[in-house]
Design brief:
Elements: H1 7-15, E1 23-25, H2 32-55, H3 57-65, H4 73-79, E2 88-92, H5 98-105, E3 110-115, H6 118-131, E4 135-139, E5 153-159, H7 169-179, E6 180-191, E7 216-220, H8 224-227, E8 239-243, H9 247-256, E9 260-267, H10 280-283, E10 289-295
Parallel strand pairs: 2-3, 2-5, 3-4, 5-6
Antiparallel strand pairs: 1-7, 6-10, 7-8, 9-10
Helix pairs in contact: 2-6, 3-6, 7-9
The chain binds S-adenosylmethionine.
S-adenosylmethionine (SAM) binds at residues 4-5, 39, 42, 46, 93, 95, 99, 114-117, 120, 141-142, 160-162, 165-166.
């Protein structure tokens, strides 16, 4: 099942089909209270979405049992054989655990998944029990990732629709920094904010009007393209909040907690069909994703 974080972006695509979900611009969160309120809204929204991940759980288990590795080619290139160096991988924003459990198939000795949505963690637990996988799961806001994990991770892994849900980037980077053991590696592949400057519903490169530096949107409801029919009106779906973080902001936040960036890339490669109507030749002119690999000294 392909389900992506960029609901704001997807809503614009659906707008082209007359199926837009309600959305509105918001100012960036001003303090910790507002950050937590937005994360709580997002928890409720992701619990709705998790219902649909549940529908794909049997397929995910079979895929993983057969040795499947649901990671992006760029991630595989950057991380290499985890069996050579990764005893413990911590996946922040692990959703229902398919990517987390893929890290095991890619050679990690053990994995830990952290996600805010109860539904996702329940799915992940069920999948790992069925597989007998060396995995443990924490249901919490990533900002509250338990301190018992501090200094334990050979790899902190995240991305593919993750950071856009986080409204405190410095707080997020602090968690990455404390989880890593000295010498441990952080990796992210996520949506490049530059792509959001263009209208995803268009068949040509047309400006979207997004603010590259501080785009925050609230929205209500998931598109059926992502979660299918939740069985109730969109007006009854949960509110959620998304934030565009330019790659430089993520880079600086990681440097700010003392990590040393070893690799920083901007890529035309995508991990979901974000511009379904655009000629692929045109689409490949855009920075669709970025990657950062950083090490804790
Ligand atoms: C699109 S998923 C990304 C995971 C994975 N790449 C995937 O495609 O399934 C985004 C995940 O972030 C989680 N999430 C959002 N805000 C969070 C927070 N503050 N703390 C922990 N998890 C959060 C959501 O519950 C959701 O599972």
């Amino acid at each position: 099942m392909v389900m992506r974080a960029a609901a704001w972006h997807a809503d614009r695509v659906q707008a082209g089909k007359g199926q837009a979900q309600p959305w509105w611009p918001e100012p960036p969160a001003v303090d910790a209270v507002e950050v937590r309120l937005r994360h709580e809204d997002n928890r409720r929204a992701w619990n709705e979405a998790a219902q649909r991940y549940r529908a794909g759980l049997d397929d995910a288990v079979e895929y993983l049992r057969a040795g499947g590795v649901h990671l992006h080619p760029l991630e595989l290139e950057h991380l290499g054989d985890l069996g050579d160096w990764c005893e413990l991988a911590v996946h922040l924003q692990c959703a229902s655990g398919k990517d987390t459990l893929s890290l095991l198939n890619a050679g990690a000795g053990r994995v830990v998944g952290v996600d805010i949505a109860e539904g996702h963690i329940a799915n992940a637990r069920q999948a790992s029990e069925r597989l007998g996988a060396a995995a443990s799961w924490y249901r919490c806001d990533l900002l509250d990732t338990p301190h018992e994990l501090d200094g334990t991770a050979d790899l902190v892994y995240t991305g593919r629709g993750a950071l856009g849900w986080v409204h405190d980037l410095q707080g997020w980077a602090a968690v990455v920094g404390r989880l890593l053991r000295p010498g441990g590696l952080f990796h992210v592949l996520d949506d490049h904010a530059g792509a959001y400057l263009f209208d995803p519903a268009a068949s040509e490169l047309r400006p979207s009007g997004a603010d590259y530096f501080a785009n925050v949107t609230g929205s209500r409801g998931w598109t059926e393209q992502y979660v299918g029919d939740l069985g109730r009106e969109k007006a009854e779906h949960a509110v959620k909040h998304e934030r565009l973080w330019p790659p430089s902001a993520v880079f600086s936040a990681l440097v700010g907690v003392g990590l040393v960036v070893e690799q920083f890339g901007e890529h035309p490669d995508e991990y979901w069909p974000a511009f379904p109507h655009l000629d692929p030749q045109l689409r490949r002119r855009l920075p669709m994703t970025y990657t950062i690999t950083a090490r804790k000294p």
